[in-house]
Amino acid sequence: MPTLTLIEHDGTEHQVTGEIGQSVMQAAMFASVPGIQGDCGGACSCATCHAYVDDHWHARVPEAEGSEADMLEYAVERRATSRLTCQLVISEALDGVVLHLPVSQY
Ligand code: FES
C-alpha cells in the first residue's frame, strides 16, 4: 500500500498508509492525524481537509481543478501547492508523497 507523510504545522510527522482509490483525507482521518477535519465527509464543500503538497512533489501531483479549485477559494492561506485531500486519490504514483497541514485547521 502507498505510504503518505503528513506533517503538522509544528513539524510533527505522521506516516500513513492508504488503499489505492481511497482519498488522502480518508486515510488521514482513519489514522487520526490532527489537522485534517473533513467536515463535509469528502463532498468537496468545506475546505477543512486542506493541505499543501511538498515543494519536491508539486510537479508530480496534479493541481486542483473544477469544483476543488472553486472550494479552495474558501481555504485559509491558499497557496499554489494547495489541494483538498478529499479530492486527492491515492495511487501508486503518490507513494511517498509529502503533505503539509495548515495551522488554521487546529
Ligand atoms: Fe470537505 Fe474535503 S472534506 S472539502
Q: Which SSEs are present, and which pair or pack?
A:
Blueprint: E1 3-7, E2 13-17, H1 24-30, E3 50-53, H2 66-72, E4 82-84, E5 98-100
Parallel strand pairs: 1-5
Antiparallel strand pairs: 1-2, 3-4, 3-5
FE2/S2 (inorganic) cluster binds next to loops.
Overview of the structural elements:
- It is built from two helices and five strands, in the order E-E-H-E-H-E-E.
- By secondary structure, it is α+β, with helices and mostly antiparallel strands.
- It has one domain: Beta-grasp domain (Ubiquitin-like (UB roll), Roll).
- A hairpin with a 5-residue loop joins strand 1 and strand 2.
- The protein starts with a strand and ends in a 6-residue tail after the last strand.
- The structure holds FE2/S2 (inorganic) cluster.
